[in-house]
Here is the input.
Amino acid sequence: MMEADKGHIDVRNMGVVYGSNASRVVAVKDVDLNVKPGEFVSLIGPSGCGKSTILNIVAGFAQPTSGEATLDGKKITRPSSERGVVFQQYSLFPWLSVRKNVEFGLKMAGVDPHKRSVTARTLLDLAGLASFENHYPDQLSGGMKQRIGIVRALAASPQVLLMDEPFGALDTQTRVVMQEILTNIWQQFRISVLFITHDIEESIFLSDRIYVMTARPGRIKAEIKVPLPRPRSAEMTDAPEFIRLVHELKGLIREESLAAMGPEIKDRGLTGFGMKIGPEGVSNIF
Amino acid sequence: MGTMANAKVAAIPISGGGLDPKLVETIMASAPQTSAPEAPADKTASDAAKPGGSIEPASPEPETVATLSLRDVARALRDAVRGLLKQVTRERITALVLACISVGAMFVVWYLGTKYRIEFYIRFKNVPTPSEVMQQAVQVGLSTKFLINIGYSIRRILLGFAIAIVIGVPLGLMIGRYRRVGDFFMPVVEILRPIPAIAWVPMSIMLWPNNEASIVFITFIGAFFPILLNTIHGVHSLDGVLIRAGRCLGASEFRLLWNVILPGSLPHIFTGLAVGMGVAWVSLIAAEMISGQFGVGYFTWEAYSLVNYPAIVLGMITIGVLGLVCSGIIRVVGKLMMPWLAFAPGSKK
Here is the structure.
């Protein structure tokens, strides 16, 4: 069983500022969030709101300007195998076979080759990719690569899993299936997850809790609990509770997306763009 | 979520509530039953979609419609493969014919030029005919002196090239990885790099205690800079996400260099090796002509001094063949060491 006190992410008072003086950009401001052990938490917000910045800090790739991020009370200062990361871009090592990719974390931990390959095979089987163990990543589709990315991160036995829009590059149909596969895998591991996304349905389907962020500078705008039972299944997306949450989140996000696109668009609220194009084309506008 | 949400993913059986992620053995026990059917949306690479994978749903499908369509697919695939094969062989034959024509034309020009002793700005007066060179080759071909010359050249190339790899690749990795190391070494590299290896000949003779060492040094200089610069370029062009992935999978700095940065830079390193091998031969021949005893370059220059014109051409051809063989070896080794490149995007044009 999972130790109840492991995998607790705590972000307090975090602020991130890029550049200095004239080129100063406040990316993230006063962010407080936490992920309790075994909890699946999503961070959702318009593009450019700093959600990836937060994940990079929790992963240890970057340092905050103010505040701090901790894992089980220890301050996060650098990347470590206790925090597994699944990236938005495909990040499999192209020179390693699928199985060797999954074994990578175990190899770094000094696990012996036999045990490594047994573990990797088990995990690949879990992701439905057992028969592809000897393929190279470039031979696989995007969905398969991301499944291997998830399994590779899990193989290193991390305390928490950080996922940065892992399905962002996939087509809609593949995404939906991937979400189901992920929720199934998570159901087995019950590991703490911080999941970054801009897809509302995705965040509801997967999460126990959702943080909504504002446009830049990114702050936490709302925290929403998802009361849907577990294990989750595809039918739940038709449940009234699910639809209610979608509407609620859409309202919250829409304001911020408009804000993110600049004050002009925000003030006119998009309806102000009902421009008509006559037979003379668009040329007369310019 | 759309209709695709109904595409069933086999629910993974949960044995006794949660599982300890640390104890993968526990999962192993339940693993044989757990299998998720291949996501239908996954556009599997054609070669990755071989039938018979364990991911196929276990339930047999007796519908004839499905079987028929499968057969159709198989037939279409077979036809496509056959067509491709035909095209490949045809293209191969065309390429071969063109190669023969171009090489043949070279010999024809040589033959005609020497037969009629053409003197039209370029002078074929003293150029030996192909048959004279052939006779020379037969005469000299298996003489120990000639083989010793070839042996010397190969030994010098191997030594100089090996030293260039041993120094160039690690230094390139360091310079590429650490800015401060680059700041320290790059000024010297930039100053020395434009100096051709041949210009090092007098200095090299002064520097090194014997002739052999100085020639190896010049060969090394020729190979070193292409290898170094391509290694640096390889490190710089490595996708940063791979380094981040390596770090959060627990790789220490040394492990990162060995397991991520080095293999990730290998394609560029091999480009450097191929270029470096070419420059190494150029440098070696020049050095042998100027200061050598033994070696193919020395053989060629000696032939000129002794007015043995057919031997000049024989020397030239020998140098060409040796260079070709060396590049060929690098290409083959590269293919063996980097099998994944066969599938890399852009490898099939």
